[in-house]
Amino acid sequence: MSELFCLEDIFNVMIELETLGHTHYNQMKEMTNNAKLKVMFEQLAKAELAHKELYEKFKSEIINFNHEKVDEEYREYMDILLNQTVRFLDETREVVDFEKGFAISVQLEKDTILFLNEIRSIVDATYYDAIDKVILQEKSHLKALYKFKEEIK
């Protein structure tokens, strides 16, 4: 990959992940009659919108990152992550059953955590608190999903 590394590309994917997450959790809410799940999916949908707004804010700022950490190997790794996530986003627009929907939910949260950890590893420390806060929220989403999955087995 010979092009210049661009944080904007990562933020664009993060914004798309959160947009898909918001829509997805609203769909999941409509697919269940379980009142607790409805509440959880509604909360997750709202959180996705808040995260999307944060990434849009980051995208509009000039964010410095450690260019020494972004060598050719790192660029290739990020290119693979971005391409895999874009492919995942293209394939998961339509949720046809609850089980597949749950699997998509888990993958959305995992991908988001992965991207946030990557962003955190290269940006200026000024952004650590905001990123860490979102990582904790995404981890709590993942735990909540697994908890409910165990309860409905």
Give the arrangement of secondary structure elements.
Layout: H1 7-30, H2 35-60, H3 72-91, H4 98-122, H5 128-151
Helix pairs in contact: 1-2, 1-3, 1-4, 2-5, 4-5
Can you describe what's shown?
This protein has a single domain, classed as Ferritin, core subunit, four-helix bundle (Ferritin, Up-down Bundle). It starts with 6 loop residues before the first helix and ends with a helix. The model has no long low-confidence stretch (mean pLDDT 84). The radius of gyration is 16 Å and the shape is elongated. It has 153 residues and is mainly alpha-helical. Helices cover 78% and strands 0% of the residues.
By CATH, the topology is Ferritin
Structural class: mainly alpha
Question: Which architecture per CATH?
Answer: Up-down Bundle
Provide the β-strand percentage band: under 5%
Q: Kindly report the average pLDDT value.
A: 84
Report the span from N to C terminus: 45 Å
What features would you highlight for this structure?
single chain, 153 residues, mainly alpha, Ferritin, 5 helices, 78% helix
Quick take:
The chain is mainly α and 153 residues long.
